Amino acid sequence: MKLYTRTGDSGQTSIIGGKRDKDHIRVEAYGTCDELNSFVGKAVSVMDPELFPDIVPELMKIQHELFDCGGDLATVNEKAPVKVKSEMVSSLEDKIDEYIKEAPELERFILPGGSQAAAELHVCRTVARRAERIVAGLKKEEDINPEVLKYLNRLSDYFFAAARVANFRLSVPDVEYERSAIVFRGKNKK
């Protein structure tokens, strides 16, 4: 098998059910999911599986789910089955809720950083937000599986929550934005 096909040399690429220019928003959408997948792999590579026995396998699962997102976004054939389902969104919500309880309560905005693991997860968060923005733009132009947009929205929240847990487990404080007022109130604060 050859790695190169030369079929994209004219600036177009084949997708499921058609062709698009390589700079088309649909191609940008699934390409950004692919980019995010690479950053998730990088985050996994710096995380100790013994300290993160839950997060590392979740991230590996997310890599497969991002491939599913890309597959759905690369499909214009309306009869093709979708891969991203509402259960995937619910699963992320469950993990977010769990990690919010584990990490210390927030009072101020935080900056990306702290530990290397948290910094890598914050990069994932920002790329997920970019993917979400691109998919939202695509949704205005063409039909998409709406669960992909929901998934990417929750995924960025997941990365935020996981980054905070990474810092907490590594005993590294979150980096507070120094000019932030108290913007989040805990349950017991008024």
UniProtKB/TrEMBL annotation:
Entry keyword set: ATP-binding, Cobalamin biosynthesis, Nucleotide-binding, Transferase
Every Cobalamin adenosyltransferase-like domain range: 3-166
GO MF terms held by the record: corrinoid adenosyltransferase activity
Pathway: Cofactor biosynthesis; adenosylcobalamin biosynthesis; adenosylcobalamin from cob(II)yrinate a,c-diamide: step 2/7
InterPro entries hit by this protein: CblAdoTrfase-like, CblAdoTrfase-like_sf, PduO-typ
Pfam families: Cob_adeno_trans
UniProt EC number: 2.5.1.17
UniProt family annotation: Belongs to the Cob(I)alamin adenosyltransferase family.
Official protein name in the record: Corrinoid adenosyltransferase
Organism name: Thalassorhabdus alkalitolerans
